[in-house]
Specification:
heterodimer, A: about 160 residues, mainly alpha, 9 helices, elongated, B: about 170 residues
């Protein structure tokens, strides 16, 4: 995280020495662009705050750790849970690690982590602002499909299918 | 559009009223929503200003021709490689990749490269990958990488071609 600050400050510094006006222009562009997306960002944060509360780690844990489910059913549930939640990696991977030790198949965890990263129902308000509704839907559907394929291949390689 | 704006304002007020009510009455689930709102806002506030400043600097310093050459129509396979490398070093999450993708597009990058970049920034950010492998094992991460990356590139090419035929503008 600190690298980001160091790089940014260094870049502003170098830019400022090279060309004052360009740098000020860059900062103005940055400010304008940030202001422009504040509304979708706020929408997204509100959705995330609600989702994290009403679909907390514990529920995800309970759903995925439930071994009575068929693993293909579990994989599908995991893919949906990953799509509708937004969780930083530093929570998601330790959670997956615990689930793995509990005996949850790799393919289920793969579906969960991949959709978590690629499919964003909660980031859709922001994505829509840049790409429009149609492209947002198409991209997310494709990503969901990719996540399912990845999960199935993972299942094959860990001998969980057949 | 008026109607949706009205709905948004009402939604926002309902949300704020819900938070105030929760804190005054000590409703735990509602308080948790407020805490989550703050935590997530802070983590974005730590990243987004830097990301946007870098985007601003990129827009004033990097020439259109340079982006066109490396990410544009003539870039060929190199465009995808650049997109994956750039995606792998992007910090944050999709909420950072979208504005970066938008800037690249305005500078002349082609759509399929843009979508590859977004996909790559979602699945192969380097620090996250190392973290993942340490919890899930190298084999798990390697499979995910080797299967998802080609699929991301192929689907991006298909989506890019489809949108270009339809004269899509970002």
């Amino acid at each position: 995280m600190h690298y980001l600050y160091i790089i940014t400050i260094f870049a502003i510094f170098v830019s400022f020495i090279s060309d004052r006006e360009k740098t000020i222009k860059a900062l103005k562009i940055a400010f304008k662009k940030l202001v422009k997306v504040l509304t979708p960002l706020l929408t997204m944060i509100i959705f995330v705050s609600l989702a994290l509360t009403f679909v907390p780690d514990r529920i995800i844990y309970e759903y995925l750790a439930d071994s009575s489910n068929n693993r293909f059913v579990a994989m599908t549930i995991a893919a949906f849970l990953g799509s509708i939640t937004l969780m930083p990696g530093f929570i998601a991977f330790p959670l997956s690690g615990i689930l793995l030790n509990k005996g949850v198949p790799y393919m289920v965890l793969s579906a969960f982590t991949t959709t978590l990263m690629m499919v964003g129902v909660l980031t859709a308000p922001l994505e829509k602002k840049y790409f429009g509704m149609k492209v947002t839907v198409i991209r997310n559907v494709i990503s969901f499909g990719i996540a399912i394929i990845v999960a199935l291949v993972t299942g094959v390689f860990f001998w969980e299918i057949f | 559009m008026r109607w949706t704006n009205g709905a948004k304002v009402i939604g926002l007020f309902a949300y704020i009223a819900f938070l105030i009510f929760s804190f005054v009455k000590g409703f735990d689930l509602g308080k948790q929503v407020g805490i989550n709102f703050l935590t997530f806002s802070v983590s974005m506030a730590k990243i987004l200003p830097c990301a946007f400043v870098l985007i601003g600097l990129f827009e004033v310093w990097v020439k259109k021709e340079t982006v066109e050459k490396h990410f544009g129509q003539e870039s060929g396979i190199r465009g995808y490689i650049w997109a994956i490398l750039l995606g792998g070093t992007t910090v944050g999450g999709l909420y950072v990749s979208f504005p970066v993708a938008h800037s690249l597009y305005n500078k002349g990058a082609k759509l399929s490269v843009i979508f590859t970049y977004i996909g790559a920034s979602a699945i192969c950010r380097i620090p996250m990958t190392i973290y993942e492998a340490s919890f899930m094992g190298v084999k798990f991460t390697a499979i995910r990488f080797l299967v998802s990356l080609p699929l991301v590139v192929l689907s991006s090419i298909a989506l890019g071609a489809y949108l270009e035929r339809r004269n899509y503008r970002m």
